[in-house]
Amino acid sequence: MKKILLFSALLTVLTACQESLEQRAERTLKDYSEKNCPLALDENIVMDSCAFEKDTHTLHYYYTISGILDNDSILNREAMRQMLVDGLKNETSTRVFKEAGYNFEYTYFSESHPGTMLFEATIAKEDYQ
Predict the structure, then answer these.
(1) What does pTM read for this prediction?
(2) 122 in Cβ contact with 105 (< 8 Å)
(3) What is the mean pLDDT of the chain?
(4) Does 100 map to a domain?
């Protein structure tokens, strides 16, 4: 029995060592999304989900905006994009993906008008380095 447990543990460790960065990104975002989403970031913004887009090496985060911010005419897109860039520069949990030059995309939808995208930004390597 001990040999079976030891073999299983060893197999798990060896498999984890062979995981590519793409596989890691996909697994990490899927696990995070399943365990934490929806996640209220503040009273007006909820993270709905996140996913990895393998073909473009993009970590994609989806949000819903509600309340006073749920208004296309008051959104300052330039300020929002700069806030995302600054936050990504200071974020340590995504370091390995930034070192690999991955993209980060943020999509914000309206709560009052489901399916309506209010803002979207893609942050590339040249933006966060």
Answers:
(1) 0.84
(2) yes
(3) 90
(4) yes
Q: Determine the structural domain holding residue 69 and report its residue range.
A: 20-128
Structure confidence by residue, pLDDT tens digits, 76-95:
999 999 999 999 999 999 99
Q: Which residue has the higher pLDDT, 18 or 14?
A: 18
Q: How far apart are CA 22 and CA 49, in angstroms?
A: 18
Number of domains in the chain: 1
The answer as to whether 4 is a domain residue is no
Q: Cβ neighbours of residue 128 under 8 Å, at least 6 residues apart?
A: 85, 88, 89, 98, 104
CA dist 72 and 43 (Å) reads: 18
CATH of the domain at 97: 3.30.300.250
Residue 100 has pLDDT above 90, yes or no: yes
In 3D space, the residue among 90, 85, 118 whose CA is nearest the CA of residue 103 turns out to be: 85
